[in-house]
Amino acid sequence: MFHIEYPRSRWEEPGYTIAEHTGSPPIRWADITTVVIHYPGFARFAHPASPSEVITHTRQEQRYYADGKGYSLGYQWLVTIDGDIIQSRGFDWANAANSPANGWSISIQLHCEGVGDDADEASPAQVAAVNQIIAEATRRAGRPLTVVGHRDTKPTSCPGAGIYRQIQAGVFRPDDTPTPPTPPDPTPTPPPTGDIVLHTVAQSGDGWWAIARRVYGNSDVAANAAALEAANPGVTIHPGDTISVPGRAVR
Ligand SMILES: [Zn+2]
């Protein structure tokens, strides 16, 4: 388990605890396939943030949810720009941030400066923290999880241009901490066989992950995307480009 700099006990207020305003069931790990990344959508965000700023802001977000929406802050975790992890629902309750995907996803909000097309990328410390969370979620789910942005599940600008670019580039993935072997995918997509190099034409909006899914299917997407990237050193993908595709999925 990763380090939680701001457990609920450090920021919750009486009358506004997560438990008091959460009617969601526990996370059903057998159903979890996806990690959804969010951002706040505020123009400015404190960075570096002092502990009192982090605590005050988290309380404000919980009050906004509890008073305005009638339920607790919907994310599992939030991560400050400094890479500190804040516990919201944690792994104790299903999330309420990704409707209609709440039942099969976990959600993480990354503190971020800027809105929409002007929003920043996640900091290296933030990426490292998120990837620890993804690693733990992957271990609990017992299968590789697909990492997407909120905008992939419904029409929204969330998680902003910078972080979404990083998602498409495969920046968010389980960290290198050893994890127990995962059971084989029940419905594996047979990868192309042979050691030949195939080619595929990039489509609008493609990143390595999107191409990996299209070519190799939904198994081992992170590894396949990494292999694609390695097979195309220094390449930035544009629509219509021809991309080299290794003929064998890397496991
Ligand atoms: Zn969102």
Instruction: Return the average pLDDT rounded to an integer.
Output: 88
CATH fold type of the largest domain: Lysozyme-like
CATH class of the largest domain reads Alpha Beta
What ligands can be seen in this structure?
Answer: zinc ion
Percentage of residues in DSSP E strands: 5-15%
Give the count of structural domains: 2
Q: How is the largest sheet built, in terms of strand order?
A: 3-2-4-1-5
User: Shape from CA axes?
Assistant: globular
- Report on the biggest sheet: 5 strands, mixed
The radius of gyration is 19 Å
Describe the protein's architecture and organization.
With about 250 residues, this protein is α/β, with parallel strands linked by helices. The model has no long low-confidence stretch (mean pLDDT about 90). It has a five-stranded mixed β-sheet with strand order 3-2-4-1-5, covered by helices on one side. The protein has a two-stranded antiparallel sheet with strand order 6-7. The two termini are about 25 Å apart. The chain has six helices and seven strands. It folds into two domains: about 10-170, Peptidoglycan recognition protein-like (Lysozyme-like, 3-Layer(aba) Sandwich); about 195-245, Roll (Membrane-bound Lytic Murein Transglycosylase D, Chain A), CATH 3.10.350.10. The chain binds zinc ion. The site of zinc ion (ZN) has 4 residues, from loops.
SSE order and pairing:
Layout (H helix, E strand, L loop, with lengths): L7 H4 L22 E5 L12 H18 L8 E3 L5 E3 L17 E6 L13 H18 L4 E4 L10 H9 L28 E5 L6 H9 L4 H11 L10 E5 L5
Parallel strand pairs: 1-4, 1-5, 2-4
Antiparallel strand pairs: 2-3, 6-7
Helix pairs in contact: 5-6
The structure holds zinc ion (ZN).
The site of zinc ion has 4 residues, from loops.
